[in-house]
Amino acid sequence: MKHIYYDYGKEELLKNGPKLSVIVMEDNAAVFQSMAQEMTEEIRKNNLQGKRTVFICPVGPVGQYPYFVNTINQEEISLKNVWFINMDEYLDDEKNWVSTEHPLSFRGFMQKNVYGKIKKELLMPEEQRVFPNPKNLEYIPQLIEELGGVDICFGGVGINGHVAFNEADPDLTKEEFLNQKTRILEITKETRAANAIGDFNGALEDMPRCCVTIGMYEISHSKRIRLACFRNWHRAVVRRAAYGKATSDFPISLLTGHPDINIKITEFVAGLEGQE
Question: Into which CATH architecture does domain 4-270 fall?
């Protein structure tokens, strides 16, 4: 069965009634700069009001972080009352975090490229840099409740529609899928292949097979959700998210009813020209 929405050009994509807000920006840099700007503006606003800021943050996309770090350092914006809750982390075969020295470690990435580059006098305490822990799966849902909720969940969308590592599961009802919280799970072969190509030089045999991830429950209960799509195959992902059925076989489709969600995409993703 051919789905007509995969043939939508930019104009049709935006005007045929997408189920969530699709924002087209010039290129990758514009998308990442916009994400970083929204992060810093939220922190500034909350700092002025004496409020904490709580983000769910990805390692993928990551292009926003250099802009974010530069702005924080140049404008000397304090992160002392900011919480970064990272979405996920790869696990080894014993279901432990991979080492921070592993080339795919999200913890290692954040330390090297974000926390390690922010001026120490501006950086939040280490306990406010949170990753889902396979040894304490209840911690993040409880923490979010104690903090009063998540201000903004930032992220990307995987090739099977997953957000964080919430892989497609057609055996679950929509309600069951959305009620899943932080957990350990096996990564699907499609995601392992896509991530091996994008992040690991195609070394599929050495890709981790398991991960720990926050759940769709935590994501869907965030006050705002901001997603970015900029890869070649995001052309199909965005069109299915915007026009496909809501199903646990394509997790992002279950978020289209959220009151404040958008996807920022590039002109390349919006168009269909340039395909070989």
Answer: 3-Layer(aba) Sandwich (3.40)
Domain extents in the chain: 4-270
Which secondary-structure segment (H or E) carries 212?
A: strand 210-213
pLDDT digits over 124-138, tens only? 999 999 999 999 999
Q: How far is CA 146 from the centre of its chain?
A: 22
Rg (CA), the chain: 18
Crossing angle of the two packed helices 64-75 and 28-48, in degrees rounded to 10: 40
Give 107-117 pLDDT, tens digit per residue.
999 999 999 99
Calculate the CA dihedral of residues 185, 157, 33, 35 and round it to 10 degrees: -70
User: Does residue 247 come out as left (phi exceeding 0), alpha (psi in the -120 to 50 range) or beta?
Assistant: beta
What's the pTM?
0.95
The runs of H, that is alpha helices, within 150-188 are: 174-178
Q: Which long-range contacts (CB under 8 A, 24 or more apart) does 41-49 make?
A: 42/151, 42/152, 43/77, 43/79, 43/82, 44/77, 46/81, 46/151, 47/77, 47/78, 47/81
